[in-house]
Amino acid sequence: xxxxxxxxxRLHHLHPFTDLQQYANKGGxxxxxxxxxxxxxxxxxxIMDGMSGLWCCNLGYSQPTIVAxxxxxLQTLPYYNSFFNCSNEAAITLxxxxxxxxxxxxxxxxxxxxxxxANDTNIRLVHRYFDILEKPQKRIxxxxxxxxxxxxxxxxxxxxxxxxxxxxxxxxYVEHIEQPYWFENxxxxxxxxxxxxxxxxxxxxxxxxxxxxxxxxxxxxxxxxGGVIVPPTSYWPEIQRICDERDILLISDEVICGFGRTGxxxxxxxxxxxxxxxxxxKGVSNGFxxxxxxxxxxxxxxxxxxxxxxxxxxxTYSGHPAACAAGIATIALLRDSGILExxxxxxxxxxxxxxQELSEHAIVGEVRTQGxxxxxxxxxNKDSKERLGPDGSGAQFARDCAIESGLMVRAVGDSIxxxxxxxxSNDEINILIDRLVAALDAASxxxxxxx
Length: 451
Ligand code: PLP
Prior knowledge:
The chain is built from 17 helices and 15 strands. By secondary structure, the chain is an alpha/beta fold.
């Protein structure tokens, strides 16, 4: 049973973002089933999923209408492509539904299988846009340090994760600026002062490179895998001003923030951003099928749909009927059964309140929350901000304690991250917080901090 699977996994299966040597020796956890907000491993240990899978199963694991939609679609039209002027009803319907829930001015959608491919698609779309406008020299993308935009060579070039950049030779025309990470970089500035400073790094970078050479700025409304970096409220309006004044396209990567995670349909709405392109994936299909894409604003679409010649880009599974069926059913649940409204009005504020209480804990230096996203920055000393352990070891220890006690959370740098499904009850949020507190207590003992 469990041991045999565990061994086969260790011997034959290469895992993403995993120390392959360690895995080959020791293996990991085999997850065998899931229901509601719980996963069960091969030993039948039940773990509350405080991460919604990889921030994607926003409606939890038991959604029969999504499963039925996928199944029905597989029985009617299991596959056809959307190349060469072909289409299918599921892809058409999903595009129309997306137009309904997206911010106004977003009416056209290009489908991919993943967020990484969607960001590659963004690069192709932006190049095509400026080529048609006869500004081919506008080529450079500006992104942020510590960003994660995917794992293809192009998407990882947009990303700013130093560990990945050590392992790839990526696009030569990507530049990175600081993220609005006040706790780390804010110094004696207030968060609002620091938000402006961090945003103006974009202006300085554009001036350094020459506005005529810069095509686009890409960022997540809240940097997710980079540590749930909730920006000061001054940050996005200033970024928007800079992009508008300098003819720079703004790309909002909503792979994590989209479909309700920040409390609204899209993170750009939470922050009043007016992007030109929106990357989506993950929550669009509740993680039940591989699906991603780019939402193209009318401004960009009106250029690329009124010029001769083929857009030479796409994937065999772009607009895959079964994936699109999952997307249609997911949107229906979020919109028509009131889950998003409940999350925005009740669950998100409750989660936020319970998370904020942890700022009293001896090792919590800062709590960052918005909607159903939270980060707890772990410190040894709240005044000096000295982190709990070297190289993120404090957060890793706390994460391991949490998982052991039946709560899946993630460690990013010195922070513990949580992004629970929107179908939690208040009682389940309370259990999540209790398990987190127990893990923080264990970590403060381990690292010798007195409460
Ligand atoms: N963009 C962001 C913000 C992400 O968080 C991720 C994945 O975590 C991606 C892009 C890449 O998406 P995928 O893993 O579907 O390729």
